[in-house]
Write a structure and sequence with these properties.
Elements lengths: L1 E5 L10 H14 L3 E4 L9 H9 L4 E4 L2 E2 L5 H15 L3 E6 L3 H6 L8 H16 L6 E2 L4 E2 L21 E4 L3 H10 L2 E4 L8 H13 L8 E6 L1 E3 L3 H18 L7 H23 L3 H6 L3 H7 L1 E3 L1 H13 L4 E4 L6 H19 L1
Parallel strand pairs: 1-2, 1-13, 2-3, 3-5, 4-5, 5-8, 8-9, 9-10, 10-13, 11-12
Antiparallel strand pairs: 6-7
Helix pairs in contact: 1-13, 3-5, 6-7, 8-9, 12-13
């Protein structure tokens, strides 16, 4: 099982940038497979990767993720080709739909029929990556714009039709689309013992394209932390899980909540969301059970974490994407080194 890292977070504001650079440079030296940036309403996902392309030599660099509502598909193709060019073909394009709160609130775009939009978006991006003229007519996109003076253009950058495309998806239909059209899945809300809730739709989509699940790289994000104070760790991560279930989306649309519900925590997901939306935050946090935290994270004593690592491996995870842990670059690098040794010893 390979290891990747997350750069910053979806809400990262650029604080401690020099230490983040030191961390990524260390990951490059240590043999980490890839580093993935993120965006929501903080630092966007592209600029940092251009910088890291010049500061690293072998680690793959991916957007984890670009929001499709924030860029036209042509601009995304241009950006992907540009980053591939300056990184020596180490760039991976990670895309996601985000959710209605961000899409409609921040970008002023409609979120309706997101799956059809994503399919068309991918089609145009792939035209651009392949060096084809950007000529397309669909329900969401039309190139060139009809009735104007535009003409179908071909991007001038060297084509890279095999540039890897990853999708961050959680809904069943969007997971099927991932299996059908993507090279990899950037997964969250993953519980190894209930992995089929998320992997089976990917498998169905892959079958439609005459592929198998093994053709899609399964990459899952995880928190890994070891301590003899298991109760302390549970309290540390309880609020984050409550936030995910209650605040990562609107009361109507929360893909993370729905994914955990399909993984066997439906009652918990509904209760925590209901309490959070009602502004009963402390009660929402208290409603998150220990069982859920231990199932969804790699936390606890070293023996407990080793057991969880084996569970992720046995569930078919190809790449474990680790969150950084520690106040300083030195602490984060030490955590990464220990994690790499632990994962290598258990998962090869």
């Amino acid at each position: 099982m390979k290891v990747s890292i997350s750069i910053g977070s979806a809400y990262y504001d650029g604080e401690g940038w020099d230490e983040l650079v030191e961390y990524v440079e260390a990951a490059d030296r240590l043999g980490v497979d890839s580093a993935w940036s993120a965006e929501a309403w903080g630092m966007e996902s592209v600029a940092s990767l251009g910088y890291f392309a010049g500061r690293t030599s072998r680690i793959r660099l991916g957007t984890g993720i670009m929001q499709v509502s924030a860029r036209t598909p042509a601009m995304t193709a241009m950006t992907a080709l540009s980053l591939a060019q300056i990184s020596g073909d180490r760039f991976c394009l990670g895309l996601g739909l985000s959710g209605p709160q961000v899409v409609e609130g921040l970008h002023g775009a409609a979120f309706e029929r997101p799956l059809g939009r994503l399919r068309e978006y991918l089609t145009i991006v792939k035209l651009g990556l392949s060096g084809e003229k950007l000529e397309f007519e669909g329900d969401h996109f039309c190139l060139p714009r009809p009735g104007g003076e535009g003409k179908a253009l071909r991007l001038s950058l060297p084509p890279k039709p095999n540039l890897p495309i990853y999708l961050a998806t959680l809904g069943e239909k969007s997971l099927e689309l991932t299996g059908e059209l993507a090279d990899g899945w950037l997964g969250t809300s993953f519980i190894p013992e209930r992995s089929e809730a998320l992997l089976e739709p990917i498998r169905r989509g892959a079958a439609r394209a005459n592929r198998s699940l093994s053709d899609i790289e399964i990459q899952v994000g995880a928190n890994l932390e070891i301590s003899e104070d298991v109760e302390g760790l549970l309290e540390k991560y309880r609020k984050g899980m409550a936030f995910t279930l209650g605040a990562m989306g609107s009361a109507k649309t929360n893909f993370y909540n729905a994914a955990y519900a399909r993984a066997g925590f439906e009652e918990v997901a509904k209760e925590v969301q209901s309490l959070w939306v009602a502004r009963k935050r402390s009660e929402a946090v208290a409603a998150v059970p220990d069982e859920m935290l231990l199932a969804a994270n790699l936390i606890g004593t070293e023996d407990m974490v080793r057991a969880r690592l084996r569970a992720y491996r046995d569930a078919g995870v190809d790449v474990l994407r680790l969150s950084s842990l520690g106040r300083s670059a030195k602490d984060r690098i030490a955590h990464l080194e220990h994690s790499l040794d632990l994962i290598a010893s258990e998962c090869g």
